[in-house]
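// run 5 | inverse folding | seed 20
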């Protein structure tokens, strides 16, 4: 599956997109918002394919630009065929008129937008409707954002821009106001678990655990399923001492700091490690009230035994410490110092 049918749990966004296609009138700019892994990028690619599909049911009229700046492409398909030449070129990432802009490192630089602006002064090579996908648009620095704003104020002919971001508040209000917004919701735990079982032949219990940890992100669930996540979780809890959080205050400080240093060196997996730790502490709270809401369902007996020895108030303070550490890491704080402070806070007696 490569078209809209590959996007799960996004009924409302797909209805909006297919309605635009059926009417044949496309806004010059769309803004897809929602968490990473909700299907925003896949929807953008499927939409680009539908706008340019030459397969059965494709638009028979040439594109023309409407008076309001929207693009009228005649009777468009509501779902791309995925097998015609334009569809296959878009899927392979080789279509000259489907352009992708994404962060270089952590930001989208003005040079990238200037290069895009130069490209947009020329006509599309072969597409009925050229599509520019700007992923993680919130990563634009101020200069890049202002340069893009000029493009949105004077939309290029035969071109649609699709911006993706987690939330509108991360973008300039003037950019948001010039785009038609479509919100993508987190994917349900049930749908993610079903996907993992059907597409990756994962056992039901393991799929349920990873689906709970994924936080509504399918891409995150896929990533976790490829890294031996269950074993990684067990090693992490043991090394951190959180498999028995009540005993953490008695751990030597040099052991705590050594673990913090080890964790900080694994920059690529640090966000996931913090989520694992947080979900474990969350489960210790939840199992005292409703064990049906537990994420780590394979360890219910262990969770219940540990939770009897530690108060919910203490656990909640530890969870808040993790949330604070996550925010500092996202703000590019020193990972080692952040992890050392976190481990000291987790080992405090409350």
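// decoded
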């Amino acid at each position: 599956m490569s078209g809209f049918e590959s996007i799960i749990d996004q009924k409302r966004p797909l209805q909006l997109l297919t309605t635009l296609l059926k009417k044949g009138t496309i806004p010059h700019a769309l803004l897809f918002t929602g968490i990473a892994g909700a299907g925003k990028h896949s929807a953008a690619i499927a939409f680009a394919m539908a706008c340019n599909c030459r397969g059965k049911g494709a638009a028979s009229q040439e594109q023309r630009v409407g008076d309001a700046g929207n693009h009228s492409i005649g009777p468009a398909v509501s779902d791309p065929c995925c097998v015609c030449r334009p569809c296959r070129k878009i899927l392979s990432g080789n279509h000259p008129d489907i352009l992708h802009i994404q962060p270089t490192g952590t930001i989208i630089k003005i040079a990238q937008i200037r290069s895009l602006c130069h490209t947009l002064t020329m006509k599309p090579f072969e597409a009925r409707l050229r599509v520019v996908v700007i992923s993680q648009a919130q990563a634009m620095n101020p200069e890049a954002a202002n340069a893009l704003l000029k493009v949105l104020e004077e939309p290029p002919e035969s071109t649609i821009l699709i911006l993706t971001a987690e939330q509108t508040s991360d973008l300039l209000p003037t950019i948001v106001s010039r785009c038609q917004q479509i919100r993508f919701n987190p994917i349900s735990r049930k749908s993610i678990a079903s996907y993992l079982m059907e597409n990756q032949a994962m056992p039901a219990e393991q799929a349920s655990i990873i689906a709970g940890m994924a936080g509504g992100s399918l891409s995150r669930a896929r990533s976790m399923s490829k890294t031996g996540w269950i074993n990684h979780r067990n090693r992490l809890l043991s090394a951190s001492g959180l498999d028995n959080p009540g005993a953490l205050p008695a751990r030597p400080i040099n052991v705590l700091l050594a673990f913090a240093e080890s964790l900080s060196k694994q920059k690529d997996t640090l966000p996931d490690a913090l989520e694992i730790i947080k979900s474990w502490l969350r489960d210790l709270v939840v199992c005292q009230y409703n064990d049906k809401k537990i994420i780590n369902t394979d360890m219910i007996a262990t969770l219940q035994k540990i939770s009897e020895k530690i108060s919910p108030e203490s656990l909640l303070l530890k969870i808040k410490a993790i949330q604070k550490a996550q925010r500092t890491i996202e703000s590019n704080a020193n990972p080692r110092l952040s992890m050392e402070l976190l481990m000291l806070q987790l080992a405090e007696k409350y």
